[in-house]
Structures are given as C-alpha cells and as structure tokens.
C-alpha cells in the first residue's frame, strides 16, 4: 500500500469552453466536478497504474463521503468546509487556466495530533508515502516534515511535494525525497539555476544536506534527478502540450511506485517513467488521470542523460 497525504483537499471543477479569452463572457460546453487535491491526484494515478493507494489528510464529512465512493480514504474530519479549484480548459488545444481558492482554516486544535497518530498507525502497512500540496490556514509549516519523519523512521521512502515554508522544513529532514519545480528550487537554495548543470548543482546542495534524492520538475524541459549516486536529466524529444495541472502529481506517483516496489529500478529508469507518466497526464483535461497507452508509447521517446557530478559533490 502507498499512502498519500492531502492536507488541503479541493473540489476540482473543470469548465470546458471554446475560444477562451479573458475579459469576456463564455458559454461553458461541459462541467466536471470531483474530489481532488494533490495527494488525491497521486492516489488516483497510482490506482490507474495498478498500485494500491490510500489517501489521508484533512477533510470535512461531506468531502470524505464523496471521496470514499471512488477511492480508499481515511481522512481526519477537521475542516469546516473544503475549497474549490477551477480549471478552464480550452476545447481546441487543451490549454488550461487555473483558479485556486486558499481553503478553510483548521479550527480543531487536536486535528494535527490526530493525523500524526493516524499516519503512525498506517505506516506499518505502507511501502511508500507522498505528502503533497498546500496547507490550510492554522496548520504549522513543519507538519509535512513531521509526517515525513514518521515514514523515514519506519524505513519507508517519503516524497514531500510541498512549497514555501513547508518545503524549507521538509528539506531539513534527513532521507526525504523532494520534488520541487524551478521556482521552489530557487527559493530553497537562493540560486537562480537556468541550465541543466546549474539545476543539478542546486539540487546537489540539498542532497549534500541530507535529502535522499531531489527531482526537479522543469515543465516542457523535463526533469533532473540528483541522488548520492549521481545526477541525470530526462525529457521527451518532443514535449506535449495540454493541461499541466496534474503533471507533477503523476510524476510523484511514478517515482513512489518504483521506490515502494520490491525490486527498485535504477534512477535513470525511474526518471524516464516519471517523465512519461507526467506527459500522459498533460494530455488529460482533468488532474489525476493519465492516458495509459500514451504513457507506454512515449516511454521509449524519453531521452535520459547522465550528468557530470554536480558542483558540491553528491
């Protein structure tokens, strides 16, 4: 079982429109609503690729009941209401415009301790853990780091795909796996990496500080992975266009699926699969879904390169 933690879930709303232009009225051709949030998206992708996953985190009773109808879930009912995220998807080219609500403020003083206890009780069944997404108001920034320590202390690989102060706290947990984008890498390291080698060097500083691996997502430019054993870049020879909203979640699902298995592949293979799975999410209109046949087709098109040992030595 792979456990995902979503601290600030959302109802994902997708509006499909033709010829979307800001500043004018549009008729919506179709609407889709479903339960979402980054960790829930990871669980969806894992279940699609044949890996059993359970989602936990914070929710209210209504959201939890809706999620339970389609996914294995075990939420702490602590939010007064659950936010919405709106994606406006252009019918012709799949381009997406996203509007993200901040979410409710956590008011239950015991909720954080309840979640820590719940994850502690589930970690014995888990082959991997993914903690991802934003934090609701009233939650300390160190909570993802605290959750990561529970898994790492139990010998379970843990990915933290968070941002801001939560990412800074998670980066200080020895053994954690980080998946920042370029902006988040800049915030963590105080650098402004541009080239592949510069990205690898910045990530290597985090590995030197104790991270088990750092996988930097770079959009159409692919990904860079740095571990104590080396550094690699991977990208599609021809990037796909579409909705990038769930691409990072799909990549996280691919990485934790590989690390949670009994026979862990080498990092070049993990990185190639992450790029292919991410691409298979980009072509879908809603986050948390992938095109399984496309994933298999583009895997052979992923170009993986071994990088020179980054400055700082990893």
From TrEMBL:
<keyword id="KW-0547">Nucleotide-binding</keyword>
<dbReference type="GO" id="GO:0009024">
    <property type="term" value="F:tagatose-6-phosphate kinase activity"/>
</dbReference>
<keyword id="KW-0418">Kinase</keyword>
<dbReference type="InterPro" id="IPR011611">
    <property type="entry name" value="PfkB_dom"/>
</dbReference>
<comment type="similarity">
    <text>Belongs to the carbohydrate kinase PfkB family.</text>
</comment>
<keyword id="KW-0067">ATP-binding</keyword>
<dbReference type="InterPro" id="IPR029056">
    <property type="entry name" value="Ribokinase-like"/>
</dbReference>
<dbReference type="InterPro" id="IPR017583">
    <property type="entry name" value="Tagatose/fructose_Pkinase"/>
</dbReference>
<feature type="domain" description="Carbohydrate kinase PfkB">
    <location>
        <begin position="11"/>
        <end position="282"/>
    </location>
</feature>
<dbReference type="Pfam" id="PF00294">
    <property type="entry name" value="PfkB"/>
</dbReference>
<protein>
    <submittedName>
        <fullName>1-phosphofructokinase/tagatose 6-phosphate kinase</fullName>
        <ecNumber>2.7.1.144</ecNumber>
        <ecNumber>2.7.1.56</ecNumber>
    </submittedName>
</protein>
<dbReference type="GO" id="GO:0008662">
    <property type="term" value="F:1-phosphofructokinase activity"/>
</dbReference>
<keyword id="KW-0808">Transferase</keyword>
